[in-house]
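To whoever picks this up:

The parser on our side crashed when reading a file containing two proteins. I've narrowed it down to the boundary between the first structure block and the second sequence. Both blocks are reproduced below exactly, byte for byte. First block:
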Amino acid sequence: MATRQSKTALRGSDGRLMWLGPTRVFYAGLLGATSHRSLGGHGIYVSPTGGPLRMRVAGGAWQSGESLVVPARVSHQVATEHPLVLNLLLESESVDPARLPSFLRHCGPVEAPAFAQRVRDGHVQLLALASRAGPAGFPDFDELFFGAALPPPLLDARIREVIDRINADPAAPSPADECAAAVGLSFSRFLHLFKQQTGVTFRAFRAWKRARSLLYHVDQAASLTDIALDTGYPDSTHFSHSIRQVYGLRPSDILAGSRRLAVHR
């Protein structure tokens, strides 16, 4: 169950906060009435109160627990009675699934009460730090939530170079043939090696990074068309369709639900 400190913090403010980094996201905010979502990173949902969250995978039966784990690219739906949900997102190219803590190697509800409380306490700590010093005072992400750095995967240096290029500018076109040439690989060899190393096609990886970059714009006073162009989509129609496929929400709903969200980069 949540500690008295964390309950007090939630009563004292609405507790909404997002901490964004290139390979990690912590989100404490509204979940919304989502349809199925399919994120490109390893997702963890934690109840802010200790009460149950509900989840179903790929249209299956609903399950419940205070902590839910969803591997990357698994279609799922989450529901909660509480206004807020705590959500951690780990980019798939930044963690080795085989060396994650055992409870994170599952899909669905997990029994990890100590971890769930650590996430709730971490949320309280971030709220306090944000009010005093902002993100400059934030601790190391993995240390805060997991107690130690999560082991990264061993990737081919050429594939890592392309991943770093896309992460640096997700809105850039970054066509596969140019990426292949930049690292000295043939087009076909690059596509094969990329999927072999990351477990996902280059096209799907790039599409996820573009959709993820929306998170950097949720606190900006810009039109949907402007955000679509800034995140690399050709028009608002493609933007809306892609975002709904990934997050299970329309872009307009994501922005509306983020109006009171404090975003720390």
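<<boundary where parser fails>>
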Amino acid sequence: MSLDIPDAIRQQAQDLLDFIDASPSPWHAVQTASQRLQAAGFCPLNEVDRWSLRAGGRYYVTRGGSSLIAFVVGEAPLAEQGLCLVGAHTDSPGLRLKPRPADSVGGVVRLGVEVYGGPILATFADRDLSLAGRVVLRDAHGQRTALVNFGDALLRLPNLAIHMNREVNDKGLKFNKQTELPLLLGALPAGLTAADAFRQPLAAQLDVDPASLLTWELAAFDTQKGAFWGVDREYLANSQLDNLASCHAALSALIASPDDTSSRLLALFDHEEVGSDSAVGAGGSFLGDVLQRLSSGQGLDDEDRQRMLARSLFISADMAHAWHPNFPAAYEPCHTLAVNAGPVIKNNANQRYSTDAETAARFMACCERAGVPCQQYAHRTDLGCGSTIGPILAARLGVPSVDVGSPMWAMHSVRESAGVLDHGYLIAALGAAFAGR
């Protein structure tokens, strides 16, 4: 049976693919989000400045270049209405270059990497990889930071031929993280060191002298663009769906919300995949600092600030595990998630997710108001359950919280898949939450 996908939802899914393709690193994701916010009339703030916030104003602020908080100051009193907060994360599991990555083995330049988070390492093999991130440069004023994105294929992690690895199909593809994961850059040019062979193209990409390069944070990424697939093109595939899909959905919902009565806030954090304990992570002070300045700017004292938080709701948006027909034993019976069947409410009795019965019901109401279906998920009891920023921020802020997300396949692969309809459904549900209808 053909799946009918409205043109508006198809366009939202294409916009998601474009958003991801423009955002190969957390710093690029924040840059892309900032550009969209400014185009929608949000005013940039800087943490080092004094803020003057007006009712009806739209603002955003970044920290460390890889985390962002955007908010609308509603005209209704904060202490009486509270605010809707939605959080997601900008980082994805993968491979990050070391500070001095280049060496040469047999005349081939390799770049040493660290494993960031929990990627499926085998999926990085035989892909057209490149580098993106930020570089700190020396200039006439001391130093500056620039973003870099090579775009085209630059690196590769070639498989060992099956003739030398006869058990690969029986025991699986495994890499020694220290000795077998370095990425191949190319032949070592005559007269150059391995370090020079890496620094020269990096400097050329930034149009600077190689001597001005101080240090960098660079991630390997798959250069293949996002695409639709399936008979009716009802699915989409790309890197970083976990969790740029949630970032895009929440950003789209915030920008599209026209109401100036209610206050609402979007927080996009780096470092979720490695525990969130950093200055830019959900475990840091970023959200609490912004909420303090927001409440102070509206004349709230400490008691009114607590009243504001008690009336608020935090929605942690992160992707969910869709049921895989080839691996049915991996899932909890009665909690199998169908792709293109709506947003997922995630539950865990051990608080790996922050959902409780009341907050689940509140998100169900958001879905009902938006006219979209929703699903519920629990992990198999005999498997370890992942977590999100939801429990972290619920504990720090004391705000009622719910964990939600869109179902997807191949989470933490370099190439993930999800449903076209689900993305539109999540935008609509988060839009209803922001509207507070």
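After patching the parser it read the second block fine. The first strand starts at residue 43 and ends at 45. Residues 7-92+239-435 form a domain with the Aminopeptidase fold (CATH 3.40.630.10).
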